[in-house]
Amino acid sequence: MSKLIVKHYENLWKGHFKLDRAEAVQKYSDGNEKSVKREILRVNDSVAVLLFRHDNGNIILTSQWRAPVLARGDDNNPVIEVCAGNIDSSDYDPLKKNPFEAAYQAAYREAKEETGWHINQLYHLFALYSSPGITTEKLYYFIASVDKQDQKGGGLRQEGENIEILEMKLTLAFEWIKENKIVDLKTVFLLQYFGNNINLFM
User: Fold this and answer.
1) Which H or E element spans position 191?
2) Are the C-beta atoms of 91 and 109 separated by less than 8 Å?
3) Which one in 52, 74, 134, 187 has a CA-CA gap of 20 to 30 Å to 80?
4) For residue range 26-43, what is the model confidence (pLDDT) as tens digits?
5) Residues 27, 3: contact at Cβ < 8 Å?
6) Angstrom distance (rounded) from CA 154 to CA 117
7) In angstroms, rounded to a whole number, what is the distance separating the alpha carbons of residues 39 and 69?
8) What interhelical angle do 170-178 and 185-196 show, nearest 10?
9) Do residues 19 and 42 touch, judged by C-beta distance below 8 A?
10) How many whole angstroms separate alpha carbon 6 and alpha carbon 23?
11) What's the CA gap between 186 and 178, in Å, rounded?
12) Is residue 111 a contact partner of residue 144, using CB atoms and an 8 Å limit?
């Protein structure tokens, strides 16, 4: 397969995220080529962490309103998700700058900020591109056992977060997937992975 060659990046917008346009050439095996333009959403890498209580097996989820979902007109319910968030610059060791270590730091931090639960053991699963046709984001997937809730959680008000914490049986979460109450992809993926491999974690 012939490679897509990017010739130039043009910044279109810069805010919390950054939107660029790539001017590229798609080469074909028959020698032909095609000039293309692609918009690229440059986003910090993120973590997604399914929390479960080791004492009773209950899972901890979050619920919050999401602007992109509201933009679709889907404003009936907030989005139920696993704990998740961006990897911040403060999560990186300035000397090592190791993305995996930063992801671990972000997982601990996000769990505390969003749910108040303390992670006892953290299991890294995968680092996958969220939507490679649109964004640069790589999402680090984790499952974590928690042992105590020593903070209120709820997210950071200075960042506009207002997060409800949900604790439930795994069976109820699966019912909510079937009933379209849980519609977030990363959350469905982690719940199914946990359910299929529960003996590895309990």
Assistant:
1) helix 185-196
2) yes
3) 134
4) 999 888 999 999 999 999
5) yes
6) 11
7) 21
8) 130
9) yes
10) 6
11) 15
12) yes
> 133: phi > 0 → left, psi -120 to 50 → alpha, else beta; which?
alpha
The DSSP code for 88 is: P
Tell me the residue type at 156.
L
Question: How much is the pTM?
Answer: 0.93
| Residue-wise burial string across 79-94, b where 16 or more C-beta atoms lie within 10 A, e elsewhere | bbbbbbbbbeeebbee
Nearest to 55 by CA among 148, 159, 123: 148
- Dihedral of CA 159/17/124/182: which sign? positive
What 8-state DSSP symbol labels residue 168? E
Cα 55 → chain centroid:
26
CA distances from 158 to 111, 113, 167 (A): 17, 12, 25
Pair of tokens at residue 103: 């992801």
* Least confident segment among 18-27, 154-163, 183-192: 154-163
- Both tokens assigned to 72: 């679709």
Helices (H), 91-158: 99-115
DSSP 95: T
Both tokens of 70, joined, read: 């509201």
* Number of residues that this document lists for the chain: 202
Residue whose structure tokens are 């270590």: 101
